[in-house]
Amino acid sequence: MGRSQVANLDESYDIIVIGGGPNGLCATAYLARAGAKVLMLERHHEGGGGLVTEEWSGFRFNTHAKLMLMMDVMPPYHDLELQSFGCRYLQPDVAATVLTRDGKALTFYSDIQKTAKSIARFNKNDAERYVEVMADWYTITNEALIPATYAPPIPMLDLTVNYQRSDVGQVLNEMAEETFLETLDHCGFESDLLQGALLHLGTMYGMDPEGGLGFLLPLFVTRLLHASIIRSGSHQLAASMSRFANQSGASLERAAEVTKILIDGTKAVGVRLATGEEIRAKKIVTTTDPKKTFLDLVGVDVCNQVSSTLVNQTQAWEWESTSLCNVHYALSERPEYHAKAFDPDADRALIQIMGVESVDDVTAQIAGAKEGRFGPSGTGMTLTDFDPMQAPVDVEPGAAVACWEGIAPFENVDGDWDALESGYAKSILERWTEYAPNLEHATVIRHYVNHPKHIAAKIPQMVRGSIKHGAYLPTQMLANRPNADCSSHRTPIENLYVAGASVWPGGMVLLGGGYNCAGIVAEDMGLDKWWTEPEYITEARKKGLVG
């Protein structure tokens, strides 16, 4: 849809979706196919949010979202026919490896028994215990947590009561009161290397190991062991949803910044753009964070008219205490790991973990980031090992695209991020070379540092580099995300719905916020809810594990 078409102020829509990130695109696609006249408005020149793929000199850098945790189970992948619209994912069987300073490797597979064999090389008791623990963790994840991702949350008290009716639910009730460290400690592992590896997998995207919500540790670990990358780059996921939405009749407008949600009394009736244009709609779906939505786009006065608690709840919203720093390298050759002499699969893993050999290593890295310090320990990935077309193989034979990422502070005590980034790129490559000696002689063709301030500038919804649009805290998850008034996707303001990463289930490109909100809006508007929920959600509902 061209820019001039939006300027037609006489035109109105059934639904306006504010924000063209993953959840906005997902909701737009479902609702357009349901027969609604939908306009999606995105402030950036392209949609996708964190699904960013930048191409420089033929090298594709996925500067934000790289690993997809739910591609094989998310309903939108099938409902929106994303494969036929150009989105294909690759899911390596060797998921992750922890590289030790003495040249060994502890390797994790999607297959539990294969992982146990790797663990047995370090501790046979832990290998046996790992099989038992992971059987429980997969049960929790598959029967309860994945289904809950694609269903609106149950009110907290009702959820606790429902959980008491099943064995899985009772375990989840117990874990909800635990920290990640406590959940891990209850596993009974002896090896600090194994414990450190599991804790790193659970916290590598900003989770606080001492912050509660212990049930998320099994979710993050099991899903990272089934992580995917998108062929040709992460942006293909956004592009595929856009194609489906377009074919379904939606209008997708980029470079269109919403500055106000128009209110008539206490009803949302449209939006105003930065250009001054006003567009009307029966329903407004916004993917902005709660502070942006309620304090800015709606306004405090309106919020106070409709709810005595909405403003206070919104003002209490907390961003994450840490962010991420990603360094992307175009290299003349791929990293070859010294540890492959100990375990050839260490060289084949999707994720190489470096500088992490204990629980203390993980907690020290996170504590340092909270205090404003940044260190070169984290995760390496060579995406061209799995998708060679992300490098210009015809022009640069043997070249590779590799990415390193780690927990980082938004405010750096060592100085300004822009001034420090070149030094960090060098020190990280030096750390990488300790584990992959061939990099000492490799040529860095290009590199790009995506530090926390770049993240916040590129994607304003990620305030202070908040990659999940808000901390995962007991007070900001499940039926508390973004708050008790709005976790059903409906808000106290009539005709206004919320659907971004700051609603349940959160960020990480799960598409759950857009999927769940689309279902609620379709019901409220009497639209054709053309999709059918997966059987695993229906089964979980029978057990009281989802709403």
Keyword list:
547 residues, FAD/NAD(P)-binding domain, Polyamine Oxidase, Chain A, domain 2, 2 domains, 18 helices, 18 strands, 36% helix, globular
Q: How would you describe this protein?
A:
With 547 residues, the protein is of the alpha/beta class. The protein has 2 domains: 3-55 and 231-317 and 468-542, FAD/NAD(P)-binding domain (3-Layer(bba) Sandwich); 92-227 and 321-458, Polyamine Oxidase, Chain A, domain 2. It contains 18 helices and 18 strands. Strands 1, 2, 9, 10, 11, 12 and 18 form a 7-stranded mixed β-sheet that branches. The protein has a 7-stranded mixed β-sheet with strand order 7-6-14-15-16-13-17, with helices on both faces. It has a two-stranded antiparallel ribbon with strand order 3-4. Strand 11 and strand 12 (278-286) form a beta hairpin. The longest helix is centred in the N-terminal third of the chain and has 26 residues, at 124-149.
Brief write-up:
With 547 residues, the chain is α/β, with parallel strands linked by helices. It contains 18 helices and 18 strands.
Layout of helices and strands, plus pairs?
Layout: H1 3-6, E1 12-18, H2 22-33, E2 38-41, E3 54-56, E4 59-61, H3 75-79, E5 89-90, E6 94-99, E7 105-109, H4 112-120, H5 124-149, H6 156-163, H7 167-176, H8 180-185, H9 192-203, H10 216-224, E8 229-230, H11 235-247, E9 251-253, E10 258-264, E11 267-273, E12 278-286, H12 290-306, H13 310-315, E13 323-331, E14 351-354, H14 359-370, E15 378-382, E16 400-408, H15 417-435, E17 444-450, H16 452-458, E18 496-498, H17 512-525, H18 535-542
Parallel strand pairs: 1-2, 1-12, 2-9, 6-14, 12-18
Antiparallel strand pairs: 3-4, 5-8, 6-7, 10-11, 11-12, 13-16, 13-17, 14-15, 15-16
Helix pairs in contact: 2-11, 2-17, 4-5, 5-7, 5-18, 9-10, 9-14
